[in-house]
Amino acid sequence: QVRLVESGGGLVQPGGSLRLSCVASGFSLDDYAIGWFRQAPGKEREGVSCISSSDDSTYYADSVKGRFTISRDNAKNTLYLQMNSLKPEDTAVYYCAASVVFGLVEDLYKYDCWGQGTQVTVSS
Fold this sequence. Notes:
By secondary structure, the chain is mainly β. The protein has strands spanning 3-7, 10-12, 18-25, 33-39, 46-51, 58-60, 68-73, 78-83, 92-99, 113-114, 118-122. It has no helices and eleven strands. The N and C termini lie far apart (40 Å).
């Protein structure tokens, strides 16, 4: 069974850090383009960061550049998102997803497999 399970969300103060994890089962993450997306209340789901299936090139949304880092541990079949200098506007449910499309995939509609999401709340 193909599955993605996120963890690591929580409540953090502005300026704090969190590391999200996404464990894949039923397939190998290194065969897929993979990414992190988020959805805040009343807003559309948006791309945060993704990593290519071919050369580990990465994409970051402008809003998170310099603060978030995406990485993949193929041995653990796990995707990570290190989030530093968190802001209240980063509050959202964060999802990981995998795409069979080759290369770096920024379009969320090209992602086929989604996790259930993990809540991140940035508040004092």
